[in-house]
Structure formats: structure tokens, C-alpha cells
Design a protein that fits this description.
This protein is of the alpha+beta class. It is built from seven helices and 17 strands. The chain has three domains: 107 residues, Dodecin subunit-like (2-Layer Sandwich); 70 residues; 142 residues, Immunoglobulin-like. Strands 8, 10, 11, 12, 15, 16 and 17 form a seven-stranded mixed beta sheet that branches. A hairpin with a 2-residue loop joins strand 5 and strand 6. 27% of the residues are buried.
């Protein structure tokens, strides 16, 4: 009798193990894997296995990120580097461009490659199984808590600076508040919500000021002339994504228009608190463009301090708009009255205006 019971228990154990092994062998099915601290990443369908594999790793990392609540959006993932079976995940903050490993100790425990024949081509979809060490979720959440406190303190200082400069330089105050908003991205606790409400009230107050840069910032197009949104590119024409620039970066501006138009590129000099017309300038006065332009054509801009939020204004008009004479300067630096005149003249013609927001990590 005892022998019979022992045999039955052994058979049940074998069946259970076989069931687990079957499930384990097909962990990639049904979109998940019911084991604690393990996550399935699904890659894109691609002609290249490596492309699908890379996207699968990032998909698994994003699932871990979403569960532990560190609120790092997928576009913040700077890189997922593999060393043997271990992964190092680096993320980039939208505000400070800080390389921070919010998650540590990830390992690839398995992978599965699926072949799909479509239109006489072989496509691949890769699945990866990632494991996160016990206790790492708790540690990651604690790192996030410390990060949020640091970002909140920095945002509060930006708000204090904005209050101090609001009356004498409302546009610079507005840039400080934009930086504070970015620093509070993903911070949804009571302190973060209260500071966001305060920032919104300050921004609404600034919008009511009679400042030409604030007016330019709120100016709306009277005609859609630009074919695509303008962008900041590197010296090879590649877009910056996200638009976080480091000191000494060499950049250009890419603009597309549907029809011939006159181009004006304007920035705000953070070091002097003055609006500056980058193009046309003393060396390049012909600002009529016909389709696509990358400016400057034969040189580039070098990013200089100070750091913080900034905006480049891309303006195109069907008719030429008068600008001040250059004098001894290479670029036009507008006084308040000259900028008001430029805005008034611009509003008398058909024009399109787009902004390119970026952050200088300095």
C-alpha cells in the first residue's frame, strides 16, 4: 500500500515537472511569463535579427520600468548594453541629461527567435526573457525617490529665480519656469502638484506683460508655409532626439518650406538676455529659400553657456520684412523697440512661425 502511494506521488511529481518544463519551454507565448521578477520582451518584426533583438531587450526593460513605477518613458532610455548575459541600462533625464542607472543587475535568462516568411522574405521576431534580482525593485524605487527630491529642489530654485526676475525680464523668467516644468516631469506627489500649480499661475501672469519676446513667443501663424516642423541637427544633418544639447555641441537648423519664402532665424541670448537674429546676418543677407535649407550651410553653431531651457524661432514670410541694419555687429541684436517694429511688420504679411525648444546641459 505504501509502495503504491509512493508511486502515485512520484507520478504526480513527474507530471507537474513536465508541465512546468513545457510551460518554461514556451515562455514567449501568450505575451507573458508568470514568474516573479521575470519579464518577456517582444521585438519588432525585422529583416535583421539584431534589430529585433535590440527592440526586444528595450521592450522588456520598459515593462520592468512600468511595474516598479520609476516613470522613465521609453524615449529616455539612452542605451541598453549587454555584457555576457548581464544588462546595463542607462537612462537620460530630459532636464539634466544625467546618465543614471535606475535599474541594475538585469540578466537575460533566455531568448527565442521566430521566423516568418512574408512576400518571399524571411522576417525575424526575437523574444527575450529578462530577470531582475530580488530586492532590486525596492532599491530602484528608493533611487527614484531620491531623484524626485533632487529634481523638486532644483525646480523650486528655478521658480524662485523666476519670481525675482519676472518684473525686469519676464521672458527669462518664462524660460526658468519651462526648465522647472521639465524637472517636475513624472513627479506626481502632493509637493510636485502644488509646485506645478504655482508655475502655471506665474506663467499666466507673465503672458499678460507687454514684453516683445513674450509676444513673439505667443505669436500665431497667419499662413502655413513650412512643410515640416523645423529641427536642430548635427553637422551631418541628423536630428537631435531628444533636444538636449551639451556645451561645445556643433549644430545646424533644418527648415522645409512649401513655396519660396523669406527665412528669419531668431534666438534669445541667455548670457546677455537679448533677442538675436541669427539669419540673415552680415555675411549671408540673401534669406530667400525655395525648399529645404540647413543653416549655416558651410559652418555651424557651437553651443555655449549658460545652460537651461531655450528656444529658436523659425519665421518664414511670403514678403520680405524689414530688419535693423547690421552696423559693426555680425548679427542683429534687437532692442525692445526694434523687435516690436519687426513683429508689427511681420503681422502685415503672410507668415509662418515655429519654435524649436531645447535644453542646454551646462
Amino acid at each position: 500500500m505504501k509502495l503504491k502511494i509512493l508511486l502515485i506521488l512520484t507520478l504526480l511529481l513527474l507530471v507537474n515537472c513536465a508541465s512546468k518544463n513545457a510551460k518554461r519551454s514556451e515562455w514567449w507565448r501568450e505575451g507573458g511569463y508568470a514568474v516573479q521578477n521575470q519579464y518577456v520582451g517582444v521585438g519588432i518584426l525585422s529583416l535583421e535579427q539584431k534589430d529585433s533583438y535590440e527592440s526586444a531587450r528595450k521592450d522588456a526593460v520598459n515593462k520592468i520600468v512600468n511595474e516598479i513605477g520609476v516613470r522613465i518613458k521609453s524615449e529616455f532610455l539612452e542605451s541598453v548594453e549587454e555584457k555576457d548575459k548581464s544588462l546595463e541600462v542607462y537612462t537620460k533625464s530630459m532636464t539634466q541629461a544625467e546618465g543614471t542607472a535606475f535599474i541594475e543587475g538585469l540578466t537575460i535568462t533566455d531568448k527565442h527567435i521566430e521566423k516568418i516568411n512574408k512576400n518571399e522574405e524571411t522576417l525575424y521576431r526575437v523574444y527575450v526573457l529578462l530577470k531582475i534580482p530580488p530586492g532590486e525593485i525596492k532599491r530602484a524605487r528608493e533611487r527614484r525617490r531620491k531623484y524626485e527630491l533632487k529634481m523638486f529642489d532644483k525646480a523650486q530654485k528655478k521658480v524662485d529665480n523666476a519670481r525675482e526676475t519676472q518684473s525686469r525680464d519676464p521672458y527669462t523668467a518664462k524660460l526658468e519656469l519651462r526648465t522647472a516644468v521639465r524637472m517636475l516631469t513624472g513627479i506626481e506627489n502632493e509637493n510636485g502638484k502644488a509646485l506645478k500649480t504655482e508655475i502655471q499661475a506665474l506663467l499666466e501672469s507673465i503672458e499678460r506683460t507687454e514684453n516683445p519676446m513674450v509676444k513673439l513667443d505667443n505669436l500665431e501663424s497667419s499662413s502655413i508655409i513650412m512643410e515640416k516642423n523645423p529641427s536642430i541637427v548635427d553637422i551631418y544633418g541628423n536630428d537631435y532626439k531628444p533636444s538636449i544639447l551639451n556645451l561645445k555641441d556643433r549644430i545646424k537648423i533644418k527648415v522645409f518650406v512649401k513655396e519660396p519664402a523669406y527665412l528669419y532665424i531668431m534666438s534669445y541670448d541667455l548670457s546677455t538676455n537679448e533677442p538675436r537674429l541669427l539669419f540673415p546676418n552680415k555675411f549671408e543677407k540673401n534669406n530667400l529659400i525655395k525648399d529645404e535649407v540647413i543653416y549655416p550651410e558651410n559652418s555651424c553653431f557651437t553651443v555655449e553657456p549658460p545652460g537651461g531651457s531655450n528656444t529658436i524661432y523659425i519665421i518664414v514670410s511670403k514678403d520680405k520684412v524689414a530688419i535693423p541694419t547690421f552696423g559693426r555687429q555680425d548679427y542683429v541684436t534687437f532692442t525692445d523697440s526694434e523687435l516690436w517694429d519687426f513683429i508689427y511688420n511681420l503681422e502685415t504679411v503672410q507668415f509662418d512661425i515655429q519654435k524649436v525648444d531645447f535644453y542646454i546641459n551646462g
